[in-house]
Structures are given as structure tokens and as C-alpha cells.
Specification:
316 residues
Amino acid sequence: MNFRNRPTGPDMAAPGPRRGRFNGYIFAALAAAFYGTNPLFAVPLYGGMDAVSVLVFRYLLGIPLLAAIIIGRSQRLLPERGEALPLAVSGVIMGLSSLALYEAYRFMNAGLASTLLFMYPVLTSLLMTLFFHEKFRLITGVCLGLAAAGLALLMQPAEGAGVNVRGFALIFLSSLTYAVYLVMVKVSRALALIPPVRSLLWQLLFGGLVFVAILPWSGGLTLPGTLFAWGNVACLALFPTVLSLIFTLRAIAANGPTPTAIFGALQPVTAVSLSLIFLGESISGREIFGGCLIVGATLLVVAGGREGTAGPKAGT
């Protein structure tokens, strides 16, 4: 989600003094770390639930939490005139991105999937160059090359194994659709003027309705079967969705979007670490190097002045 051209206010105050900046770095790190918990809570649910059912609960349980924040601030809850359509379209795109990501978890290492998802700032920059006439910079070309090299390393199968084409296709689709979502937020004046928390609430609602509509073709809604599973879906709604957004907003208010986006590199680091420790996944030195190339390419895009590619990743 893009915060450039948003009106200033309680959520978007000017960067503060040194202490405020230090707090902003802490908030940015927490936002990235919370988002990196996606596979930790989602993958264990696949023993009895499918990706669509998991996302129904993640999206719809996040709505009352966001609504409580908006009401607590005495802010407007309902969309204003002209906001419903762009919110619906962006919510559907965000939902499709989430669905592709959660389906990819079924076919490939969840930590690597989260690392590949981090290509979205590079793709956003490329889309803005191709379709909205932003000047193509040398740094963009370098980053595309680094990301392609990292992707090539990650796609090399281990000895005796084949390339999981479906998993890589799904995660690329997730990254691409999230890049489209960011571009839409960047170029849409209507979306740029909506307060971020209200915007996310309605995008979660419209995205959640997409999953509800898909349910008849996915085998129907599967409820969490254990207390542990209910805890996981609640954590998905809280940590990588609501808390990730809140801390991202506070980090941007303290330090601006670019430092906040740079700390976003902790997302794949967190996801890979948690997958190794709690999900029993493994990762090779080649895959680590490939992931570092992708993360490095993303950081170069951000540091090169593409602040518009950054934002809370709460919806994906």
C-alpha cells in the first residue's frame, strides 16, 4: 500500500526527533517480523484446511479488529462517495495475491516462497516504467538482473529432484498481483486519499468475499478442528494482518516510507528462520545466496528512490 500523497494526520505525522526515529526503527522491525509469521501460522493449518478456508478466517477475523481501531479513533467507518469501487477492485486484487501465496505454501518451502514474494518492489518499479512512463533508471536494470539471478538459483532443483513449476508460478503470480495492487494505490487519487486503516478494512472485506465466493468450488468451508488451529487462524488475523499494519503506520510516521521499506528485508529473514525452527524445513547455501540476491535487489530499488513501492504488507 502506498502512502505517498496521503494527507497528514495522527497516522502520518512528520518524522520526530532522535528518540522518535529510534522508536520508528523498532516499529519497522516489528512490522516486518510480524508479517514474516505468515507461514508459521498458515502451514500447520493445511493438515485439515485448504488455503481458501484459511484465508476466509484470516481476512474476516481481521475486519472487527480494524473496525475497533477506527471506532476508537472516532473516525468514519463507511466508504465515502466514489470510494467503494476502487476499494472493491483493489481488495479483489489483494485477495488474489494472498490466495496465490497461500497456495504456493502447499507446493514449495514456505520460507523460500516468502523470499520470492519480496520481489514485488522490483516488479512494481518495472510496471511503473512500462505502463506509466516513469523514467527507466540504471538501478532498475541492475535490480532486475539481480532478482533474475536470485530466481534462477532458487529454481535449481536439488540433486535427484525436479523443479516445482507450480509453486514458482504461484509465488510469481502472488508477487505480480501485489505489485499491480501497489501500482493501483499509487496512481488512484481516490485510494490515495482514503485513511489507510479504513482502506485496509474494506479491502479485507472485499477480498474476503472473493474467498467466500470460491468456497463452492474449493470443497466448502472447513472449520479449524482443534483449539490449536483456532489459535493459528486468530494469530493470522492479528500478527501478519492488523499488527503489521499498525506498526508500519507508526514507523512511517516516525521515519518516512524508505527506512520502513528497508526494514522490510526482515520479512523473508523472519519467515525463513521460523520455517527452519518450527516447520522442520531445510534450506541450502545456494538457496540462501539466491534469496540474498532478491532481497538485495529490493533494497536497491527502495534506496534508489522508489519509496512508492513500499507500504504495509498486511493484506498479502
